[in-house]
Amino acid sequence: MKKCALINDLSGFGKCSLGVGIPIISVLGIEAHPMPTAVLSAQTGYSSYEKVDLTEYMPLFFNEWNKLGFSFDGILTGYFSDEKQVDAVLAFTKNSNAVLLADPVMGDDGQRYDGFTDALCEKIKTLALSADIVTPNVTELKLLTGESDIQKGAEILLSNGVKSVVVTGIKEDNKIGNAVFEKNRCEMFYSDFYEGGSYSGTGDLLASIVMGKVLSGSDVFSAVQTATEFISLVIKNSNVQNRNDGVDFEKYLYRLGKNNEKE
Ligand code: PXL
Prior knowledge:
Blueprint: E1 3-11, H1 17-27, E2 31-40, E3 51-53, H2 58-67, E4 74-77, H3 83-94, E5 99-102, E6 107-108, E7 111-112, H4 118-129, E8 133-134, H5 138-145, H6 150-159, E9 164-172, E10 175-182, E11 185-190, H7 202-215, H8 220-236, H9 253-257
Parallel strand pairs: 1-2, 1-4, 4-5, 5-8, 8-9
Antiparallel strand pairs: 2-3, 6-7, 9-10, 10-11
Helix pairs in contact: 1-7, 3-4, 5-6, 7-8
């Protein structure tokens, strides 16, 4: 089986990060190997949370993985709570042939998430520019490139060597969609359901579906189409009281698993 390293936090509440990435990558038929950046009582959108930061352990864990000869087909990165964590990842990915998908988690709805300093955002930008695929939302694209214009922002990332830029949560009139930009092609995938909300963990759903699909041989365009359809179905059928709680993706995981493996 193909192997994917998932470098992200583990949050007890507010379905997101590894809590989303592990089941999604697994149901897509790829081995998920987590490297937690931090463990939180709940994701940082709630009014309070406790966090155990694993910064000092990450280089030790990567050393162990290298020492034991573990190698990966894909590396998916998400939430970081310290610049040194990103340095550890940059050192780890330097000698790897894996497909690197960097989800540059920094903020949403025009705001940075709690704890995202200029220095941390700058490091995340360095990682994003070294990735094959980057999946910023509109807020993160602006933080990465300084551009509010989506096409111009995506072109800046492409001209710095990123192969595929997926800009998520683009709002147009009464629609929302995700755009894929590659050197010679760009395409928008609209959600067939939009009621104006935004939910925890949908960026993690998109990034992990794209990673899993690409590792299974899809191109980024069809991977984003699958992710857009899945997230739209899940949001439509979620009973969400608080956006921080996340969406009810569990009910539909089986759909992603269909046709992955003949019995
Ligand atoms: O889904 C993004 C995310 C991941 N991890 C943590 C977060 C957030 C968004 O708020 O707080 C801990």
